[in-house]
Amino acid sequence: MWKDTAPTIRALGQRWTSGELARLYPDHVKEKRSGDNDVSRLERYVYPVVGDVRIDSFTLDDADAVMRGVPAERAAATRRHVAQLLHRLCAMAIFPLRFIAASPLPRGFGFLHREGLRRCEAARLTWSDFDLERG
User: Fold this and answer.
1) Which of 11, 56, 116, 127 is most buried per CB count within 10 Å?
2) Is residue 77 within 8 Å of residue 93, measured between CB atoms?
3) CA–CA dist 50, 47 (Å, integer)
4) Cβ–Cβ contacts within 10 Å for residue 113, how many?
5) CA 70 to mean position of chain CA atoms
6) Which ranges constitute the DSSP H helices of 8-118?
7) In terms of Cα–Cα distance, which of 54, 44, 40 is closest to 11?
8) Integer angstrom CA distances of residue 36 from 33, 56, 76, 81
9) Cα separation of 42 and 132, whole Å?
10) Under 8 Å CB-to-CB from 34, ≥6 apart: which residues?
11) d(CA 54, CA 93)
């Protein structure tokens, strides 16, 4: 598949959404059921910003740039899906592909983008600020 060099974000995303990675790694990569929607999100929000970045050079700053490119008026679900796509690409690059040793994205990446909070506002949140029953 890829010999000595890690693929770009675009190449990795295309191999994933086409089903190639599911065929090559059936025990570790599931076939995409939401492939058409994910292709659209990748093409609209991810590839224009970081499509040519190799996965082993992808950084948290790159991911933040992608999220900044998602218009604020888009639904929270769209922002969440874009963040999840970035997470999944990084996870596959760790295993089974073994292009990177660890993800550049911290746990919870996308929370601030999804919820529309500033960092200082998020830092002041307490458990009483969350309504776990109604989401």
Assistant:
1) 11
2) no
3) 5
4) 20
5) 13
6) 9-17, 20-24, 35-41, 47-50, 60-69, 76-94, 111-115
7) 54
8) 8, 26, 19, 13
9) 31
10) none
11) 11
Q: Whole-angstrom Cα distance, residue 89 to residue 97?
A: 10
Polymer length of the chain: 135
**Is the preceding peptide bond at 106 cis, omega within 30 degrees of 0?**
no
Tokens for 99? 């292009």
Q: Report pTM.
A: 0.80
Report the C-alpha gap between 125 and 114 in whole angstroms.
Answer: 15
Close Cβ partners of 1 (under 8 Å, ≥ 6 residues apart)? 15, 24
Mean pLDDT of the chain: 87
Which tokens sit at 135? 């989401």
Quick: pLDDT tens for 42-82. Answer: 999 999 999 999 999 999 999 999 999 999 899 888 998 99
Q: Which two tokens mark 93?
A: 């690059």
| Whether 8 contacts 52, CB under 8 Å | yes
